[in-house]
Every structure is written in structure tokens, then in C-alpha cells.
Amino acid sequence: MSGAIKNTSDLPLDKILCGECVDVMRSLPTASVDCIFADPPYNLQLRGELRRPDDSVVDGVDDDWDKFSDLETYDRFTREWLSEARRLLHKDGTIWVIGSYHNIFRLGAILQDLGFWILNDIVWRKSNPMPNFRGRRFTNAHETMIWAARSQDSKYRFNYQAMKALNDDVQMRSDWYLPLCTGNERLRNEHGLKLHPTQKPESLLHRVLLASTAENDVILDPFTGTGTTAAMAKRLRRHFVGIERHPDYAKAAAERVEREEALPQDAVATTPMKREAPRVPFGSLVERNFITAGTVVYDRQRRVSATVTPDGTLVSGTQRGSIHKLGALLTNAPSCNGWTFWHFERDDTLVPLDALRSESLAADAEALTLASAEVPIAAQ
Amino acid sequence: MSGAIKNTSDLPLDKILCGECVDVMRSLPTASVDCIFADPPYNLQLRGELRRPDDSVVDGVDDDWDKFSDLETYDRFTREWLSEARRLLHKDGTIWVIGSYHNIFRLGAILQDLGFWILNDIVWRKSNPMPNFRGRRFTNAHETMIWAARSQDSKYRFNYQAMKALNDDVQMRSDWYLPLCTGNERLRNEHGLKLHPTQKPESLLHRVLLASTAENDVILDPFTGTGTTAAMAKRLRRHFVGIERHPDYAKAAAERVEREEALPQDAVATTPMKREAPRVPFGSLVERNFITAGTVVYDRQRRVSATVTPDGTLVSGTQRGSIHKLGALLTNAPSCNGWTFWHFERDDTLVPLDALRSESLAADAEALTLASAEVPIAAQ
DNA sequence: CTTTATACTGAATCTGCTT
DNA sequence: TAAGCAGATTCAGTATAAA
Asked: Is the pLDDT of residue B267 over 80?
């Protein structure tokens, strides 16, 4: 990510490291990763059997004190790995954690306690959840992800345009409807049984990575499991660091990543963010004669007008300023995007200045293409 | 509720009590209510004013009651009222709390700490949420409710059949799709402005009470506001105890309850809900790998072509857009149905994208069938 | 009366670079 | 570090006005 100080050089990139999550994290350099996706143990309390984060079974003592102590154990474990996670994230990095009602409230509260800044909670609505077969509750048809920046002032990445494009050109909402991981996507053992109980669907990670990372970014997954995060990172031409304590899972994940193919570079490009497009000063359009000095420009309703001057400012009566400033001034607004506010006449219709900007960028791209087509000859 | 010892005789039934929530709760008898619905302050921590792209100002929640100096203060407040809530619930009672990502993790963790037993987290998906105006996050399109029993061994009430009937005879899921409270339902002051910034929709409380209470049950609402809980309790022939700190709100809520009519006793509310028709964004087919990024697509006559990108847009030369937009662009048409316009190669023939849409819907239906068929095995 | 255009609104932690 | 300023940014709905 631009500007931020990163420490990737010492990272073991694109590997699944086998070991205890916190131990391995302690061995990695500070401020070295762009994004973290974590699918920690859920502390599920099913069939009377209580499991600690280390998978050991808690004695079935059914009193309040024991439940309390178990929550404490889970909290301590959570605070440990989340503290390390925060150290590994660089200042503009973000983290995703996923959980169910069993553990997500512990995760969220501790994230906040540690200084993470929650950006969204995302609901993964399952298209094919397991029904509630005792009929004693609502069908538990979703899981929750928390997306948080390292701190309140992080300049985090959010690929807004890509998410909007992914959702038929309306803003992507906080509720995502995706199927469970089933069929061929599900890793199975030699008996055809699922290898891992909670393998996440590739579609989920695809969207997570597309939303919050850039090409070549480094994503850490402290609970790699079957390696969905790593595989999607490779597919989308990102880098990953995976940690998995169970050797069988670590092996399966590594083999899966091996099988995964990276998409061709030109296929991972998504709709660019406008902010990242090259900045075009309006004055340069006048210089390059995309619009002539003296042209009269109007707002869409032709309520106000102004004249273009050779240095790219607009003049209206005694008032003068940039396209943005004069627009704000004439409408008594605190601010104004002059590119979309001002229009000029072309073929009897009003065209926004923004069209000229697009045309100039297209012309530049065209020129670039022509130039690079010539490169092989020139370079040889 | 059957069997449980209740103490309703000393309760001030069907009244809105004006006073501080915890103070009033302390004056009520132990184990006296069947159900609690609580909509506490969210502690939103809004900073500056927010403007829409048209420069209008968003009327946010800037009331003093939503301001807490820090998380610790909010936690202390939460622990206080939840402790009283637990005392007031009889042993088989349940509680609902609603919140957003700002406070729901604090609420959930403290509920668990106090010994409540979480039954479900319910996602209220808003059909018409406020968009994200700066394009810096996902549209915050939901709020979360936690439904919890007083303790793990509570014999709580869940009206399974009523919920199933309400949902076209399939189990009610944990994600509910309901509109905001607007129009005539919204209480307004003499200037026509909203009386309360966070009035909840009646449909939400209707479902909550129908799911978890019986006729003549007593429901406590410690943060009554405009009295949606009380009004729905009266409509559904339940009893309520409301607590509200602000005299204006307490008065408005009491008047609202007065206007509300109880349904006739034999009117069993099982209004069938329409199920949502699944909309398939093209991007989701890329995510789910029904079609791969990098695939080249053509019109039927192969006159134009484009490449699929990971966010579901198509790229052709320097032009990029949704399947619909790019189809229109390349054919100079005002609009275009990209689903039928674009084709990809499969077995040497051109297949329209629409086929993939059908296939994804069929796959979802298939997975649904398999999932429910597998349940007995998974349950073992 | 019908249709179309315009205005308004909702629990929101809502910018980022340069000087 | 604070100020200045370029410029990016909205969906579903209801209510009212205009045609």
C-alpha cells in the first residue's frame, strides 16, 4: 500500500508455516503484512462437550464458574493472537475475523479493546445452511465477519468501484449471500469424507481479497486450515503467509496452493478507483485544446454560467476561481466537484467537463498503446 | 410460561414508567417478566457532519443519551442494566437486545459474562438502508439482535410452527429482511420531523413477540423510546412494562399505545411472507467460478469481444463496464441485456451467459436439497 | 385522474494530499 | 500539525408538485 512503511523483505512469502499460531507470529517482523484473514476456533459448545482453543476437552462440569473460566481461557487466547496480529499489520492494514454467535462477540470486543477500528460487520448469509432439526431455534443461516483497520487513523484500502461492479453497479452491502463450500471444492480424505470441518468457500475469500487488498499485497492467515485464503491469494496474484498447527492440514493446504493457478496479470485488474486515476488539472485540458479559452460553461439547469480562461480558472462576473471553487461559490455550497457540476455545449446538448477528462485519459492510453506496440522493434 | 414461578402480581402492567432505566428496574420484583426487548444506546461516536453527494446534511444521531466518554463507561452502563434485566426475568425467560457493530460486541460479551445463554443472533437486513455516501466502506445494511435465554437450562419459549408458517412453511432463518420505519408509521412532531431518531419498525417487534412470547405474557422494554414494543405487545394481546427516561418520549409512547387496538383473540397472526426472488449479479458467477476471469466473451455473431475480469466487469480495449453497459457501448445501443448478448465458448459452441445464471440457481437448489438430506448424518 | 419530475430522508463511527 | 483545497460520493422509498 502506498506510503506506508512495510517490512516484507524478511517474511517467508507464499508458504504455509506449520506451528502454533502465536509462536509463529512472534517470529515474524513488525508491520510486515497488508491484510489478515483469521478464522479462529469457535469455542463451540456442542453435545455437552466443551473444547478449549487447543482442542483439549474440558471436563463436563456444568456450573457457572466453569463456564466463566472457559470464556476467560478463550479470551486470553484471543487477546494473545490478536495482539500479535496488530503488531504484524502495518499502520494502514486491515484485518478480517470470522465467527458465529459463540465467539464473535468475544472477538469483536477484544478487537475494540486492543485499538482496532471496526469498519464493517459483514454477514455471510448461507444459501444452503444446515437446518435446525430440533425446531428449538431459528435456522442458524449466517456467520459474521468483522472488518477492522489497525487504528482509527489508518488509511485503509477499500476497492469501492470493484465491489460496486461486482454487485451490478449498486454499492456492495454488508450482507453477502454465498453458498457453503461443497462438491469438488471441498477437500476430502481417502475415504471421501471432508478433510476439515469448517472449510470456507472460495467465493467468500475472493470477495474479501478483492475488496481490501491490491495486487502483490501480503495477506496473513494465522489459522490456515485447508488454505482457502492462500489459494485465493495465489489466484488473484497476491502473496500470502499461512500458519497452521496441524501437520495434515498444513500439508493439504500446501498441496492445494500448488495446484492453484494464478490468473494472468491482465485478468486480475479490476475496476480502478477514481482516486487512483492520474490526476488531470483542468488547466491542462485548456492547454491541450480539449476545451477553448472563452467557452461558456453552465450547471446542468443553466442557472449559473462562467467563462473558461487560458489558465484554467473560471470567471463569472467579478468572481474567479478553480472549477471547484467557483461552483461552490455560486451555489453557496461548502464544496463542489467542478468536473461534474460544469457543462459545455456540444451538438446542442450539455456535456459535463468530466467527459473531457475521460477523453484526454483515453487519448493518453491510446498513445501509450501505440508507443508500446512499437517497443519490441525499438528494443530489439 | 408453563411451570415457572412468576411474580407478575406486583408489576405495574401496561404502563410506560418515566425514569432512569436502572433505577426503575430496581423497583420491580424479581423473576416477574417473561421476555425483555432492549434497544439501548449504540454509542455511535459520530464526529463531524456528514453530507450526501447532493450536499444535503444527514440528520444523524447526535443526542446526549448516545454519548459515552469511553468504552469502559459504556461497558459499566451495559453491565448494570443487563444485571437488573437478568434479575427481572424468570428462569425460563428470554431477552432480545439490538445493536450495530458499534456496541453489539460489547452487549454480546457481557450477556455471556453474566450467564445468559445465547440462542441465536438475528440479522435484520434493511431493504432500504442509508447508502455509504463517501464510498469508503460497505453499505451498513443491517443491525444485529441477540436472542438469549436467562441461563443454559432455561425451558424457553420458541413458537417454531408460527415462525415456519410465517415463512411459507420453511424454517425461519436467522436473517430477516424488513424495511425501515418510514411513512405514516413514523411518529412526527408538530413540524413534521421525526420525533425519535431510531424508531424501530413494527414488523420487527411483531416477529420478535410472535416468535418468543405467548398470549398474556409480560414483556419489559427498558428503553421504550416511542413505544414500538409496547404497541405491538398490545396489538398481539401481550402485556408490557415500558421504561423511558425522556418525558416527551414517554408521553408519545403512552399516547401511541392508547391509539393501538388489540387484535381479536381468535386472530392468529400468520401473515404469509413473500420469499425473495434471488437476483444473481454477474460478478457472483465469477467469484463462484462458474466462469473464470480472463475468459473471452463474444456477441452471437462474434462481431465484438471482451474479457471477463475478477470483479465481473468486461474489458474491451480501453473500455470497461458491466456486461450490460459494455454491450450497449460496443453496439452503440442505448441499452443491452448482457445476459443474452454475451456468449462464451463451451464445446466449440457459443453459450449465452444466461445459461450460467440458470446453472448457478440450479446448483443452489441442489445444494439445498443435499444439505437437508445430509442432516441426519451430520447430526450423529 | 394519471403520469412524470423533483425533493426529501434514513442508528453513519464516511477523504486525502500538499503546504 | 493544522490549514487549504482538489475532488469523489447515494439507494430505496415516500411525499409533493407539475404536467
From this structure: no
